[in-house]
Design goal:
By secondary structure, this protein is of the alpha+beta class. Helices cover about 25% and strands about 25% of the residues. It is built from ten helices and 19 strands. The strands form five sheets. Strands 9, 12, 15, 16, 17, 18 and 19 form a seven-stranded mixed sheet that branches. A four-stranded antiparallel sheet has the order 1-8-6-3, with no helix packed on it. Strand 18 (about 375-385) and strand 19 (about 390-405) form a beta hairpin.
Length: about 425
């Protein structure tokens, strides 16, 4: 009997997913637990495996970018030629979904195939696989001119390669916005320069960018954001890092500044638990665990916030190991859905791109977010033990704390930020 393939629960609170791409097509043989389809949730790509071995009889939700609720039927697997139960087939019609922009996986695996131009023939018969679509896009081929030998007139990879080999070399490409104009492969100052983008070009939103936009707007509407800024002397942190980089490297750990900032946040949250909290209609909910999110850039795809669970139990070495691991897997798109959930406070190290200070948006439903600016040598006034003042050159960084004014008042926010500042400035007395 045919077996349903449904959207599984991919994490606590996950109610829907965005379909990225099918890894198998109708008629393909699949093994049990073989990756079948890729979906995206909370900016994390996840493969859904086949629950049984057999033939992929029918794909119910085929449109890449479609939003599908947990529990919905995605496909049917059974014996070749087996009929899908009629009652179920009628009930499980493709969902009426609003097409979403291409995700990361789509941009790489399923390039757009432009609609036929005026005078061109209609779309070809049969299903067009992502591989065929990509080859057609790369060579500017009008698929209506390619004869399909697959089931139902479907154009196979073999068909289109044969067409390319036998067709004239001179071929007029299908008119479309160039791929490099649809997305930004590598966001750098040069990428965004005026000579790299054509005025009037519309760059479609990716699924990640749309999720970021929705979350940012929701956050600003949800809580009153207030910013407080302090300046920290990072001389002690820099000295400690310089003295321990090689020691950490022996354990395969790259010691960056991020673990120091996270450890300082832990100290601040322990001293002022009200900051490690969330607003609710019943009252302010204090979190039992300290789970720190760290904003991680994904280049043109936006950013993601992997979460270090129970960060208060980690040493500097353990924190550095967690930072290395999560950042690497985030950029390789290998995070699990639960690894971007459950954060109670967030760090954004915007200084890596040269920013001095910022006004970050709170990662709801958290109480606050701390931004760390670029470390710069500046002339500052310092005092010795006798109270004598002098001008010295010190490595300084601005700490920007944005907090939910429903939970914290200005004084409480400043007490927390002062604790973070003191921890960083007096790192020599902190355990490594």
């Amino acid at each position: 009997m045919a077996t349903k393939v449904t959207v599984p629960l991919l994490g606590e609170g996950v109610e829907e997913v965005i379909l990225s791409r099918w890894l198998k097509q109708e008629g393909d043989l699949v093994e049990e637990m073989e990756p079948l389809v890729e979906v995206n949730t909370d900016k994390v790509d996840t493969e859904i495996p086949a629950p049984v071995a057999g033939t992929l009889l029918k794909i119910v939700v085929a449109e890449a970018g479609a939003t599908v609720p947990v529990g919905a039927v995605l496909a049917w697997i059974g014996e070749a030629g087996e009929a899908i139960p009629q009652d179920d087939q009628e009930e499980e019609q493709p969902l009426e979904t609003t097409p979403a922009p291409p995700t990361r996986a789509q941009a790489k695996a399923v390039p757009e195939v432009a609609a036929p131009l005026a005078g061109e023939s209609a779309a070809p018969r049969g299903f067009i696989s992502p591989v065929v679509a990509r080859i057609a896009a790369e060579h500017g081929i009008d698929l209506s001119k390619v004869k399909g030998t697959g089931r139902g007139g479907r154009i196979t990879k073999k068909d289109i390669l044969a067409y390319i080999e036998g067709a004239p070399e001179s071929r007029t490409p299908v008119s479309r916005v160039p791929a490099q104009k649809r997305s930004l492969p590598h966001v750098t100052p040069d990428t965004l320069a005026r000579d790299t983008l054509t005025p009037g070009t519309v760059i479609p939103h990716t699924a990640v960018r749309r999720r970021i936009a929705e979350h940012m707007v929701m956050s600003k509407r949800t809580s009153p954001h207030v910013l407080t800024v302090m300046e920290a002397d990072l001389s002690s942190v820099i000295a400690h890092r310089q003295a321990n980089k090689e020691v950490f490297a022996r354990d395969g750990i790259k010691l960056t500044f991020t673990p120091y900032f996270l450890q300082a946040i832990v100290a601040g949250l322990k001293a002022y638990p009200m900051v490690n909290a969330s607003w609710s209609t019943e009252g302010v909910m204090l979190h039992r665990e300290i789970n720190l999110g760290m904003a991680t850039s994904l280049g043109e795809e936006g950013l993601i916030v992997p979460v270090i669970k129970r960060a208060d139990a980690l040493s500097l070495l353990g924190m550095a190991r967690a930072v290395n691991d999560l950042a690497a897997r985030a950029r390789a798109h290998q995070l699990q859905p639960d690894e971007v959930r459950g954060g109670t406070f967030t760090l954004t190290n915007h200084g890596v791109s040269g920013s001095l200070f910022a006004f970050p948006v709170i990662n709801q439903p958290q109480c606050g977010i701390l931004g760390v600016g670029a470390i710069q040598k500046r002339a500052v006034v310092v005092s010795d033990a006798r109270g004598n003042d002098a001008i010295a050159i010190r490595p300084m960084a601005y700490l920007s704390f944005v907090f939910d004014h429903r939970i914290l008042d200005g004084a409480q926010a400043d007490w927390f930020l002062q604790k973070v500042k003191d921890t960083l400035e007096n790192w020599g007395s902190s355990p490594a």
